[in-house]
């Protein structure tokens, strides 16, 4: 179990988290999302120990207690690597640090990456694939992946996700992803965490979330249901409601529509922007 | 990790070698314009000394250059390596290269290994290294090192005077190497402590948000040392004049 307890963190005077707590059981694939600037990447960096909390603790599973960083694979949104090294040098550097002998080039051999190329000369997608390959070569128990998957082309994205699924089923890896693009990852995510103002607004298993967030197409707002956001059209409106109660279905004058993860998150984020007067 | 730092060290050394162009230029300048009768090897020796000092400052100041330039701090900090090991991997190749260069210089000049020049060289290297996290600009870094070097030259007479006044040394010119070493140490210590405080707590936050120890430790210490110099340096000069 990965546990955050009473965590507080600030960038200078800007407070990001105050008394924040979160538990992530082993083997869970967790999606963290929220509006830009809410602290998603910061949370991932705190997990990866590249940021230090001002207060509170982050506890790793007992199997990782001695040297947690050795068992964490972290890829940041800035794709931080030594860009002046060649691909071959960067592989050797990473292998030396992690004391691993082999490097799984299954992903990079599908791209045109050559070992003599400088990392800075790789495209964003190539660099992402390369970074992911580096991380996967160390067989991490916890994978922390920031918003980077979107920069890979559709074919490589599928390849990467297939590899991730294989890794999860083989070794029960805990994956925490920060994403703003959900279509490709919807089928591998177990749990969705939506952050708002440094706090957890929603924390649900994905199936429960899908059961609780619905779109109701109706002429008027359904009573007794909390509306996250709405879109008005001539003669009817679309109401995104949460939490939806199946028992209320008979009282609703309109169509109840199931949503995919992208639509669910959009409804939450749209509602947040609407509250701020931004639409 | 060490391999990369060795490569970086040699790269930095290579970049400093441009100074050697001053040798043929100086020689031609003498032959064509000033006609002072400078000999080629004399110019070479002088330029080599300059090269070693430039290298000491450059090697120290660029200790985290790769991380800053490549924005690789996040990557470095995510690795399962202690801060001490990272620092040792960065410091040792640079220090080793400097020691070799200095040894060559002392052999060519037939001068003793332990000399004021050696202390000054170590001072420049360490001062540059300790400021490497705090200062990004090459010009500001150079000015800071020159300022510290200036202070170093005023500090050891100041401390000589204080030690003599406290009857710790029999005369103002006693134990010059020890006084010089101690002066360098006293001047470097607040920067070393601030550097280590920042470095050992370094994370992926913007560097400018992590510089507090420099303001809380280095700056007040520097002001105290400047105050001591202002009080005692003049007295030292007066005493030396009398003697």
Summarize the structure in words:
The complex is a heterodimer of chains A (279) and B (243). Chain A contains six helices and 13 strands. Chain A has 279 residues and is of the alpha/beta class. Chain A has two domains: 204 residues, 3-Layer(aba) Sandwich (Rossmann fold), CATH 3.40.50.300; 68 residues, no CATH class. Chain A starts with a strand and ends with a helix. By secondary structure, chain B is mainly α. Chain B is built from ten helices and no strands. The radius of gyration of chain B is 20 Å and the shape is globular. At the A-B interface, helix 2 of A face helix 5 of B.
Key features?
heterodimer; A: 279 residues; alpha/beta; Rossmann fold; 6-stranded mixed sheet; 4-stranded antiparallel sheet; 6 helices; 13 strands; globular; B: 243 residues; mainly alpha; 2 domains; 10 helices; 77% helix
Quaternary structure classification: heterodimer
Shape of chain B: globular
Query: Any idea what the shape of chain A is?
Result: globular
The beta-strand count of chain B equals 0
- The CATH architecture of the largest domain in chain A comes to 3-Layer(aba) Sandwich
Question: What is the helix fraction of residues of chain A, given as a range?
Answer: 25-40%
Give me the count of strands of chain A: 13
Strand content range of chain B: under 5%
Number of helices of chain A: 6
Q: Which structural class matches the secondary elements of chain B?
A: mainly alpha
**Uncertain runs of chain B with pLDDT below 50, 5 residues or more?**
none
Largest interface: A-B, 28 and 22 residues
According to CATH, what is the topology of the largest domain in chain A? Rossmann fold
Major beta-sheet overview of chain B: none
Question: What is the H/E order of chain B?
Answer: HHHHHHHHHH
Mean pLDDT of chain A equals 87
Cα separation of the termini of chain A:
39 Å
**Estimated helix fraction of chain B:** over 70%
Q: Cα-atom Rg of chain A, whole angstroms?
A: 21 Å
User: What proportion strand of chain A?
Assistant: 25-35%
């Amino acid at each position: 179990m990965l546990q955050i307890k009473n965590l507080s963190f600030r960038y200078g005077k800007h407070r990001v988290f105050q008394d924040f707590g979160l538990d992530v059981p082993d083997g869970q694939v967790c999606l963290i999302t929220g509006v830009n600037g809410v602290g998603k990447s910061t949370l991932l960096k705190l997990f990866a120990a590249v940021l230090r909390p001002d207060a509170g603790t982050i506890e790793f599973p007992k199997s990782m207690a001695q040297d947690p960083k050795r068992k964490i694979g972290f890829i940041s949104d800035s794709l931080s690597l030594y860009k002046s090294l060649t691909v071959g040098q960067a592989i050797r550097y990473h292998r030396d640090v992690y004391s691993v002998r082999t490097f799984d080039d299954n992903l990079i051999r599908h791209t045109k990456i050559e070992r003599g190329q400088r990392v800075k000369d790789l495209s964003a997608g190539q660099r992402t694939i390369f970074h992911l390959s580096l991380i996967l070569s160390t067989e991490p128990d916890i994978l922390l992946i920031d918003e980077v998957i979107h920069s890979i082309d559709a074919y490589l994205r599928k390849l990467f996700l297939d590899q991730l699924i294989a890794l999860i089923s083989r070794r029960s890896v805990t994956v925490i992803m920060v994403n703003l693009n959900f279509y490709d990852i919807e089928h591998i995510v177990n749990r969705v965490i939506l952050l708002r103002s440094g706090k957890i607004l929603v924390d649900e298993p994905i199936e429960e979330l899908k059961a609780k967030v619905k779109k109701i197409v109706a002429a008027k707002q359904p009573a007794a249901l909390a509306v996250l956001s709405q879109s008005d059209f001539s003669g009817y409106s679309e109401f995104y409601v949460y939490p939806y109660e199946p028992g209320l279905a008979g009282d609703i004058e309109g169509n109840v529509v199931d949503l995919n993860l992208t639509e669910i998150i959009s409804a939450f984020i749209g509602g947040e922007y609407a509250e701020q007067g931004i639409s | 990790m060490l391999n990369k730092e060795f490569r970086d060290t040699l790269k930095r050394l290579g970049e400093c070698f441009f100074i050697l162009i001053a040798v043929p230029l100086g020689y031609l300048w003498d032959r064509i314009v000033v006609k002072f009768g400078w000999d080629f090897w004399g110019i070479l020796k002088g330029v080599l000394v300059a090269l070693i000092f430039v290298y000491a400052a450059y090697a120290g100041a660029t200790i985290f250059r790769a991380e800053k330039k490549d924005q690789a701090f996040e990557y470095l900090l995510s690795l399962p390596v202690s801060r001490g090991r990272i620092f040792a991997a960065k410091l040792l190749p640079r220090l080793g290269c400097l020691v070799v260069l200095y040894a060559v210089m002392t052999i060519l000049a037939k001068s003793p290994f332990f000399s004021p020049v050696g202390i000054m060289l170590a001072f420049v290297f360490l001062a540059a290294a300790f400021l490497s996290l705090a200062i990004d600009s090459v010009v500001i870094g150079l000015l800071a090192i020159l300022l510290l070097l200036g202070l170093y030259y005023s500090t050891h007479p100041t401390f000589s005077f204080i030690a003599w006044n406290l009857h710790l040394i029999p005369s103002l010119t006693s134990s010059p190497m020890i006084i010089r070493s101690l002066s360098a140490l006293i001047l470097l210590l607040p920067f070393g402590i601030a550097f280590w405080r920042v470095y050992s707590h370094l994370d992926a936050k913007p560097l400018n948000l992590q510089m507090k120890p420099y303001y809380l430790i280095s700056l007040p210490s520097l002001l105290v040392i400047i105050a001591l110099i202002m009080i005692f340096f003049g007295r030292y000069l007066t005493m030396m004049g009398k003697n």
